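Hey,

Quick one before I head out. I ran the complex with flavin-adenine dinucleotide overnight. Inputs first:
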Amino acid sequence: MDSSLTTDVVVLGGGPTGENVADYAHKGGLDAVIVERDLLGGECSFWACMPSKALLRPGDALAGVRRVDGARQAVRGGLDVAAVLARRDGFAAGWDDAGQVAWAEGAGLRVVRGHGRVTGERVVTVGTPDGGEVTIEARHAVVVATGSVPVIPSLDGLDEAPFWTTREATAAQSVPGRLVVLGAGVAGTELAQAFARLGSDVTLLARDAVLRAFAAPARELVAAGLQADGVDVRLGVSVRRVERRVGANDDEPGGVLVHLDDDSTILADELLVATGRRPATGDVGLEWARPGLEPGDPLDVDDSGRVPDVPWLYGAGDVTGRAPLTHQGKYAARAVGTAIAQRAAGKLDGAVEAWSDVAATADGVAVPQVVFSDPQVASVGHSADAARDAGLQVRTVELEIAVAGSSLYADDYAGWAQLVIDDARDVVVGATFCGPDVAELLHAATIAVVGEVPMSRLWHAVPAYPTVSEVWLRLLEADRFR
Ligand SMILES: Cc1cc2nc3c(=O)[nH]c(=O)nc-3n(C[C@H](O)[C@H](O)[C@H](O)COP(=O)(O)OP(=O)(O)OC[C@H]3O[C@@H](n4cnc5c(N)ncnc54)[C@H](O)[C@@H]3O)c2cc1C
Ligand SMILES: NC(=O)c1ccc[n+]([C@@H]2O[C@H](COP(=O)([O-])OP(=O)(O)OC[C@H]3O[C@@H](n4cnc5c(N)ncnc54)[C@H](O)[C@@H]3O)[C@@H](O)[C@H]2O)c1
């Protein structure tokens, strides 16, 4: 059935970003409608962050116990796969978004189901599941928070072969005997380890390196961690073609035959394609407001999320390509929702001030990310190369993590840490930690970068003894006595 409605703000896409834009606009006194075509909560809640970490965490916990003599002896078996999958199902709420809808309604937001497109100035038209249309007019703003979609490489035979994207992998109801993972970025690396620990024979195919975006010592530690779990890590290989095999009988099982450019083949029960994501800018009606924008191009926005020259149109989250991570999408969402509300109230005019509550300034200087592999990689801010590309003169200090806290934490603890320091201001502009459970070391680094805390003052931030954080003291000493 067709209908129309008017509101203050229409948010296209109800992922973590869209939900937070709407919530913050509403907290600022505006009425907001979220348009969602799939599950409210988006990729993160149902097919990305939460289910993937739920698949990883039990293996991590078990590996943690095995690293401590005296505790190791208590481990009598492996993971209970059915229990792990059931726990993961719980985190994905059984792929039912009733809880998220209840939250949205409780927060005073309206949800319209269906595929939305921008069809005019401050107008969104939604094709609803029953074949009808809802036209929504926004008094103040339309926000595009449509996320991202997987990039599928054009490989000979891939169209005919059944394959998994990260959606099928994170929602898997059974564990394949043999799994080939194509792409050794963050998603491929995490899921290769998760399935290896759940019992799959995993082959991870990397065109160049595992986690190539991270510093070499961290990459090498992670590759070694994968190999220790039995993952066959193939570096510097490409897939030539993919072939679907129909099994003749139990002795000749079917699956996917992957042909590599080194002339070898691998037969797998499942092929996971994890070769990146691109902004979901196709079929959203953006060409109307942004002529020339091709599907997959990021939606360009300023720090308050506003599309240049289109004052009523905003973007936030993965769709902008700024920092495609849930926490950064939500951070941008808080700025966007607040900016829309302040502009509507006539309290915000002109350019936004950096580091104010209407600017996602940290996107350019301090994006934290954790790779939940074992060992973990946790980084924030600039790598040394990125800092130099940004015109900074930097020095680095790096060392193996070997402090009293790490030796107590795990026998044979292997880890690495690096600080990137801006010479001119003598402040940390980047940090990377790699090792078991280093994720929780990261926020201290994020605060140091965002707060631009001088090295001389960081000296007085004394890490408690005996914790892994003592690596901070070693890093400061290494810089001071270089
Ligand atoms: C396997 C995997 C693991 C990840 N793990 C982490 C992690 O541990 N930590 C982390 O920070 N990030 C992680 N990420 C990244 C994270 O999932 C994204 O950064 C995050 O989901 C982006 O949020 P978003 O709201 O911008 O987009 P999305 O979560 O993609 O939400 C967009 C929503 O918009 C809807 N939509 C799209 N187009 C329309 C339309 N035209 N009309 C109506 N609705 C529409 C979609 O259905 C979707 O619900 C992971 C990603 C993957 C793939
Ligand atoms: N813990 C986390 O924060 C987390 C976890 C998973 C995913 N994510 C996010 O989700 C997004 C998608 O993750 P991703 O790992 O798919 O993307 P990615 O960009 O991190 O990695 C993609 C990898 O695939 C490789 N690749 C591309 N085409 C290929 C081909 N034809 N053959 C072989 N390899 C190929 C690339 O070289 C790269 O290493 C990223 O933004 C990522 O940050 C975050």
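The pocket of flavin-adenine dinucleotide (ligand 1) is lined by residues 12-18, 35-38, 42-44, 48-49, 52-53, 115-116, 145-148, 166, 170, 187, 280, 284, 317-318, 324-327, 329 (CB under 6 Å).

Talk tomorrow,
K.
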